Amino acid sequence: MDINSHLKEFGLKSTEIKIYLYLLENGVSSPAQIAKGTGVLRTNAYHVLRELLEAGLIEEQAGRGDRKTYIASDPSALLRALESRRETIARILPDLRSLYTTEKNKPRIKFYSGLKQIQEIYLSALDAKELFTLGSPETLYALMPEFMESWTAEMRRREIIEYDITSHASQKSVQKMSREIGPHYLAASLPPTQGPDLTTDLLLWDNNLALITLAEPFFGTVITDPHTARTFRMVLKILHSKLH
């Protein structure tokens, strides 16, 4: 690996490398000489010189009159600059780790609008080994019959276990889902209630909890958080076992 490649690994840009190496080889030089010798535009050369000065790789000297000249620092300045960076990172590392832990444990929330996007939620759940649901299969089949047929077929093919807590009004659709998904579909019905059927659906898989509105405006929210998922999984398991 040549010098240029090593200096790039250090973090220098190509124009910074050109000017730095030029000053190492030629000693004290004015901006005009540097621009001519490196092919870097003079206006850009001033900016690069400032960057190298801040990095401690070159030094500024007074020339004739008000003119400034520049010279490369001893190459050991590269090591000093690297050490300085390491010390800076070491000082802020505890704060960075704190931010990383906070962000890692922070729940992620994603919103979906419209039936097409809501279908993406159901498709995402197909990556799970087991799925907890609470809602109305009757409403789902009424809204998107073709999608439900392909979705239940995929559930069967992947042998995903579904623990479904269904509305009492969904008995016919439950029978249909049981035929299409097979023995991995475990349904438990809520007691009969007065009023319209459920127009919301709840899905829980892995660390994801989805809350879906199956009426205008169609809307879905997916919360990804292990703590939330663990709590809802416990509640849904208990409810399913009581109703089954």
Automatic annotation (TrEMBL):
CDD domains: HTH_ARSR. Residues 7-75 form the Transcription regulator TrmB N-terminal domain. It holds the Pfam family TrmB. It comes from the Bacteria. PANTHER family: HTH-TYPE TRANSCRIPTIONAL REGULATOR TRMBL2 (PTHR34293:SF1). This is Transcription regulator TrmB N-terminal domain-containing protein.
